[in-house]
Specification:
By secondary structure, the chain is α/β, with parallel strands linked by helices. It is 33% helix and 19% strand.
Amino acid sequence: MSPAPVDVASLSLSALTAFLVELGEKPFRAKQVYRWLHQRGAVRFDEMTDLSKALRAQLEARAVIRAVEKDLEQRSVDGTIKYRFKTHDGKLIESVYMPSPERKTLCVSTQVGCAMGCRFCATATLGLVRHLAPSEIVAQVHAVNREVRANEGLETLRPLTNLVFMGMGEPLHNFENVKAALELLQSEDGPNFSSRHITVSTVGLVPMIERFATETDVKLAISLNASWDETRDVIMPVNRKWKIADLMEAVKKFPVKQGRRVTFEYVLMSGVNDTDDDARRLAALLQGVPAKVNLIQYNENPGLGFSTTLDNRAERFKQILEAADVVALIRANRGRDIAAACGQLANVDKRAAAGAA
């Protein structure tokens, strides 16, 4: 029985070097292959034109590139583009491109579905199908870089400037693969993203936050969404295992390096977590923590039973935080009309679904 093909786009440069040496190649060939994979975003070995035909044939026989295939593209009135990608085994994931005058940001998925079960989130309705491999995580970045280059007439190999790991899935539940993907994305011979321009979000897997702090150097965002356990237990099942106090203890140990100020994401849901008392409790909770709060007015998902907080209530919530010297902003929700906003990623074509109704 022949060995399973090697997923070369998941390999670090050192691991790729060892693999090519095993094939009888000189070590320097690894850097050529690596740059084709992670600078140019090659999806086939025959694209690697500076490699010999013999080496390309060996790679075809012994390895595989786990690229993703664009399955659907949806464009919002605000310029956001949602891409639905199909993996090699037919699973569907979504990535969201959010351009602005200052930056070009991609929201990346780390799992097919999600196991966390947050009651207000559309992705949670899918359950967890499987983890994404490092190659499948970075493939979203490479694919959207290609799309942006073509759509916007750009020559740079890496038009994307910022990455947020806030798409489908819980990144710290797939920590080893996310960590490997971060290393690929930050490598000098790859896309070379700065740690200051990458943010990873978590619902609060407390034991993994320490590992994340010590084994990566990118920014952390905490999806908090409640200021006391009674509410968070209901809307976020993870809180039944690790209470807010446990989460805050882990956050306070997080090393606040340059550019690593912790962000707290707080989804405002009408009558659930948006009262003045909720704001005051949140302000008290964050005293002494070098952090900022992103307030997100809930993006409604049919059937989940939650509704969004109105503008005046969101503004009042923000004012209470600011009066307590907590940095807060109301984040603009982008891509609502194509189900691309925070908490809406569930592989649904919103317009097609509306037409079928």
